[in-house]
Specification:
It comes from Tranquillimonas rosea. The chain has 134 residues and is mainly beta. It has one helix spanning 2-12; strands spanning 18-23, 29-35, 40-46, 68-72, 78-80, 92-93, 98-102, 105-110, 113-118, 123-126, 131-133. The chain has one domain (16-133).
Length: 134
């Protein structure tokens, strides 16, 4: 009876999300992917960028703006008002010319930059010179 109860409780617990990371060869764009049971998310940060941000800074944003992009497998891209963390390590390398498909996303790393799209076709392009949300 006790074993059956423990097994039942173990089955009732939701599965933990799988999380992994990757970065471009320049190490200037770093991404974190989270995959859960029924959804996935992708957050990419461009550490050094030039030019105007992809969207106007929202009122009340007193932190770094235009560096961090978040999207889910469905829906539009969101930009985060958050400090840039340039000291992260342990990222897998997404070599130039590589396309990765995971969860609800497809990302392509090239010498021009990193482009990622979700299942709805929303996404972003990130390079040091240009950041675009579509």
């Amino acid at each position: 009876m006790r074993i059956a109860l423990l097994l039942a409780l173990g089955c009732a617990t939701p599965a933990a999300a799988d999380v992994w990371t990757f970065e471009t060869p320049s190490e200037n764009i770093q991404c974190v992917v989270g995959m859960g049971h029924d959804s996935s998310d992708l957050e990419c940060t461009i550490i050094e960028r030039h030019g105007p941000p992809a969207a106007a800074r929202p009122a009340g944003c007193t932190s770094d703006w235009g560096h961090t992009f978040l999207m889910y497998d469905r829906g539009p891209v969101r930009m985060s008002c958050a400090p840039v963390n340039a000291g992260r390590g342990g990222f897998d390398r997404a070599d130039y010319g590589v396309t990765g498909e995971f969860g609800g996303f497809t990302c392509h790393s090239s010498r021009e930059g990193l482009e990622c799209r979700n299942l709805d076709g929303h996404g972003f392009f990130l390079s040091r010179a240009r950041q675009t949300v579509f």
